[in-house]
Amino acid sequence: MTGNAYSGHVKLTATMSPVQKNRALNDNFRRTGNGGVVTISMGIHMLGRSEVESIMKRLGGQEGENSCDVDSEHETGEITVTNRHIFWEINYYTSPTSKPESSRGL
Questions:
Q1: Concatenated DSSP letters for the chain?
Q2: How far apart are CA 15 and CA 32, in angstroms?
Q3: Is 1 in contact with 77 (CB distance < 8 Å)?
Q4: Can you tell me the mean pLDDT for 85-90?
């Protein structure tokens, strides 16, 4: 399976396990914001644009990568920015009104 509405330019192969495919999609979304919708809590919003941009930049970089459990789909993690613990999560929804089916996709 290569390139679909969810994968964008992420290369997915038939030999990849479901965990590997979800990890690739989640990593791409975390790094680029492509393939989904980013939502933030009001508490993060109230930190201001500059702090939100810093959080998103660090989440998309090596710090975000390091916050993921090695054996996971890379759907959750925690980073520290300006002495604040920021918990993040990626959820996959099949439609705008559905509940999460599985973790895939911020």
A1: ----TTTTT----TTS-HHHHHHHHHHHHHHH-TTS-----HHHHTT-HHHHHHHHHHHHSHHHHHTS-TTS-S-EEEEEETTEEEEEE--B-SSTTSPP-BS---
A2: 25
A3: no
A4: 95
Q: In the numeric block, which tokens belong to residue 11?
A: 């290369």
As a whole number, the mean pLDDT across the chain is 86
Give per-residue pLDDT as tens, 42-67: 999 999 999 999 999 999 999 999 99
Q: Determine how many CB atoms are found less than 10 A away from the CB of residue 88.
A: 20
Cα 66 from Cα 30, distance rounded (Å) = 12
